[in-house]
Please model this.
Amino acid sequence: MKTFTTTLLLTLLFTTTSLAASLEARHYWGKCTPPSYACKADNSGWLVCNVDGTFLDGGVCNKGTTCKTINDLPYCV
Model:
């Protein structure tokens, strides 16, 4: 039972964190036109414009790199 409870709590934590990141991206950036890409506000990764016109979390830059916009596209450098 303890393993099930731990697994359930971790699943809820992951889901909540993912949802919060997604909502943060939507709130901060608002509407977009696909295909659009942008660096996150803290330059820790990038956002991708979804077909419904909202930015979604596209990924995280590797340790030691930050997102920079080069030729209108985000790159982790």
Summary: The CA atoms of residues 25 and 70 lie 20 Å apart. Residues 4-20 have pLDDT under 50 and may be disordered.
